[in-house]
Amino acid sequence: MSAKKKKIIVAVIILLVAPCLFFLVQNKRHMKRVRDYAKEEKFALAKHELEKVVCLSPKSLDDCKLMMDVYLKNYDLGNVDYIAELCLHKGFKDKTVVFHRTKTRELRGDFNGALGILGAEISSGSGSGSAASDPDYFLTAAQLLTRMNNTQGAAAAYLNVYKLAGDSLEIKFKAVGALVELKAHEQASLLAKNLAGQSFTQPVPYLLLARIFMQLNDTANAKIAYEKGHPLLSSVEEKVRDQIMQNFQDVLKAFIGKKEVSPKK
Q: What is the pLDDT of residues 27-86, one digit of tens each?
């Protein structure tokens, strides 16, 4: 092969490769700006940069979450669906992707469609690590059912949330609190009594239980929970203690009057 032909081949390769390299560099630059804007919660600017990316395609699960979040914050539901399906097609499956697909249907008013997505995930398997053992799926379903005014279905979902919560007191209290709001008092009382049978080293769980029992008009159990929690306030750092007392003024006033005195150490 002559030197002239080699030069021509090299020139052609450069002409073919150069645009690809250019767009690759540009895409990285745009994606960096998308991440920066998203961190600053400037989602309109983030979407503007995202739309400059050539051949938009997530390279990782983090890319999926970022792109879906940016489009969702801009209420661009079509692109949320597109990215979610693209991520699933590429094998980037995560509950965040599922929940974004669910959210798009909820925002469109298609509650049955949203529940259908969750139901398909829950029924697709069992055991540790599956949707069937993850309280977040049932929590999302419960919130949808509440919006649909399906109180009975929502209450059943919250019971599953509690059962699957494991050691997470935050999730358990969220489930009990939601049952109280739904006026599912029988179920709420059952779960609250279950929690009350546990021992806690911090005052907040006891004070939360006292509040829940007050809402359920169960004064006796409210008083028991309060009497267990109030002495523990003295072992909490002063700044934190003051905040707790402020947050639970309703409980404190119910048992010791309107003027609450900070417990002495």
A: 788 889 999 999 999 999 999 999 988 777 888 999 999 999 999 999 999 999 999 999
Closest CA to 220 of 231, 230, 209, 204: 209
φ, ψ of residue 148 to 5 degrees: the values are: -85, 5
Q: What is the CA radius of gyration of the chain?
A: 27
Q: Which two tokens stand for residue 173?
A: 């209290």
| Residue 218: both structure tokens together | 């169960």
Please tell me whether residue 50 adopts helix, strand or coil conformation: helix
Phi, psi of 262 (to 5 degrees): -60, 130
Q: Which of 134, 206, 146, 202 is nearest to 179 (CA)?
A: 146
* CA 69/CA 46 separation, integer angstroms: 10
The answer to whether the beta carbons of residues 106 and 114 sit under 8 Å apart is: yes
Q: pTM score, two decimals?
A: 0.81
User: What is the spatial distance between Cα 230 and Cα 71, in angstroms, rounded to a whole number?
Assistant: 47
